[in-house]
């Protein structure tokens, strides 16, 4: 089932999320719904807060971008209860967008290497070192489960320049091909 994407301004996007366990209700169905929603929305990542759930879960599939970023070959994962345990000092700046903030794309500087510990969809622990765009995708989604958005990394001036666009998004004045949910 395709779920609505919660837009900028909805309080769930600013919550620090809760860990979940194998007994989380309808977990397998939620994962399937998140994949379906992400692909329908043409995203490469989707975090649970973006579908209204304040839990530590996100899915990523970077394979559609493999032509531009070869390191994304086969990069499809479910991240449950992740923790970024190490970040490189070196950073890389690249453009980012977000399904919850449609129509806005900005350059964001992030560490170009991370070490992340997480559980997969079977709740088995994994530890993975990620580089370049794979690291960027995971950091972007990880921010969602920490209540942060990519626009939080922008300068105060840049944020002021985007204020009217962000206000429009928060009330649903967007042109997207996917279901949305706004704050009431």
Tell me the layout of helices and strands.
Layout: E1 5-6, H1 27-40, E2 45-47, E3 57-61, E4 76-87, E5 91-96, E6 106-111, E7 113-119, E8 125-131, H2 132-145, H3 156-170, E9 180-181
Parallel strand pairs: 1-9
Antiparallel strand pairs: 2-3, 3-4, 4-7, 5-6, 7-8
Cross-sheet strand order for the largest sheet: 2-3-4-7-8
H/E series, N to C?
EHEEEEEEEHHE
Helix content: 10-25%
Calculate the mean pLDDT score and round it.
97
Count every helix, treating DSSP H or I runs of 4 or more residues as helices: 3
Named CATH topology: Peptide Deformylase
Largest sheet: 5 strands, antiparallel
Number of strands: 9
Low-confidence stretches: none
**CATH H-level homologous superfamily name:** Peptide deformylase
Describe, in plain words, how this protein is organized in 3D:
This protein has 184 residues and is α+β, with helices and mostly antiparallel strands. It has one domain: Peptide deformylase (Peptide Deformylase, Alpha-Beta Complex), CATH 3.90.45.10. It is built from 3 helices and 9 strands; from the N terminus they run E-H-E-E-E-E-E-E-E-H-H-E. It has helices spanning 27-40, 132-145, 156-170; strands spanning 5-6, 45-47, 57-61, 76-87, 91-96, 106-111, 113-119, 125-131, 180-181. Strands 2-3-4-7-8 form a 5-stranded antiparallel beta sheet, sandwiched between helices. Strand 7 (113-119) and strand 8 form a beta hairpin. It starts with a strand and ends with a strand.
């Amino acid at each position: 089932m395709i779920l609505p994407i919660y837009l900028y301004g909805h309080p769930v996007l600013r919550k620090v999320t809760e860990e979940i366990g194998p007994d989380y209700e309808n977990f397998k169905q939620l994962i399937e719904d998140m994949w379906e929603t992400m692909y329908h929305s043409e995203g490469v990542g989707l975090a649970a807060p973006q579908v209204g759930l304040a839990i530590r879960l996100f899915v990523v599939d970077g394979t559609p971008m493999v032509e531009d970023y070869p390191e994304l070959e086969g990069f499809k994962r479910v991240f449950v209860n992740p923790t970024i345990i190490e970040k490189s000092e070196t950073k890389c700046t690249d453009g980012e967008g977000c399904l919850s903030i449609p129509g806005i794309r900005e350059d964001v500087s992030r560490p170009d290497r991370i070490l992340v510990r997480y559980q997969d969809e079977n709740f088995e622990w994994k530890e993975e070192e990620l580089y370049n765009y794979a690291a960027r995708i995971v950091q972007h989604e990880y921010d969602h489960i920490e209540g942060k958005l990519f626009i939080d990394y922008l300068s105060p001036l840049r944020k002021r320049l985007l204020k009217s666009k962000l206000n429009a998004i928060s009330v649903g004045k967007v042109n997207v091909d996917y279901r949305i949910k706004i704050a009431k």
